[in-house]
Amino acid sequence: TVIYSKNETERLPIASMCKIMTLLLTFEAIDNGELSLSDTITVSAEAAGMGGSQIFLDADKPYEVRELVKGVVVASANDASVALAEQIAGSEDLFVSEMNEKCRELGMADTHFSNCTGLPKAGQYSCAKDVSAMFSALLKHKGYFEFSRIWMDEIRHDGGRITEISNTNKLIRFYDGCDGGKTGYTAEAGHCLAASAQRKGMRLVAVVIKAPDSKSRFGDVSKMFNYGFA
Predict the structure, then answer these.
(1) 89 CB-near residues (< 8 Å, 6+ apart)
(2) Does 76 qualify as catalytic in the annotation?
(3) Which one is catalytic: 44, 53, 70, 76?
């Protein structure tokens, strides 16, 4: 049920909110038995060299799927996203084809993906309505909440190195009932956030694209939650 909307089908870049679809396909693979959180993935040099937000994976080293998923959900890690995509589909390009196929399945008519990270790339766009649809689909996978509520944690690398991570979605700490979300930021996309909160058995999803600053996106989503719960 849509409670409030504004420009909900306007096609815009959504930065790292693209990873919502990456996570949806990952949790589908886990629930279908094609992948397990305890499986080990050897990270490719291409994945390890993604840059941007990352958990500084070592190329040609083994990582548990659980750690990679945690890196994507909590820290919005580009390197972990590509590592998972390559494991699930064989290559990022093939994985992106699966992402776009899933768009068609979910009726996301105003979305097209060009990569699995949300890094700027031609032909990549979505809209608030479609982000809400894919995020709602992700929330049906109970395993997601094992990671989405984490505030601070660490990623352990082969050889003892540790990367400390903290959740990019500040609302899980500061908004009562918020238990999941995905941020995004690039210069072209602005500050983005899709988040969900639940109170007394009622779950809300709110999406903001192209906020002028980080504080605004968290404030706007909080206002929408307050309005919805009220």
Answers:
(1) 95, 97, 98
(2) yes
(3) 76
Q: Confirm whether 196 is a catalytic residue.
A: no
* 213 CB-contact burial (10 Å; exposed 0-12 / middle 13-18 / buried 19+): exposed
- CA-nearest of 62, 78, 54 to 163 is 54
Query: What residues pair up with 128 in beta bridges, in sequence order?
Result: none
197-220: pLDDT as tens digits: 999 999 999 999 999 999 999 999
> Which pTM does this prediction carry?
0.97
Report pLDDT for 31. 96
Q: Which helix (H) or strand (E) holds 50?
A: none
Sign of CA dihedral 85, 90, 96, 100: negative
Instruction: Report the candidate in 3, 7, 2, 4 with the shortest Cα–Cα distance to residue 211.
Output: 7
200 flagged as catalytic: no
Compute φ and ψ for 38, nearest 5 degrees.
Answer: -90, -5
In tens, the pLDDT along 120-165 reads 999 999 999 999 999 999 999 999 999 999 999 999 999 999 999 9
Rounded to an integer, what distance in angstroms lies between the CA atom of residue 207 and that of residue 186?
A: 16
State the catalytic residue, choosing from 16, 126, 196, 222.
16
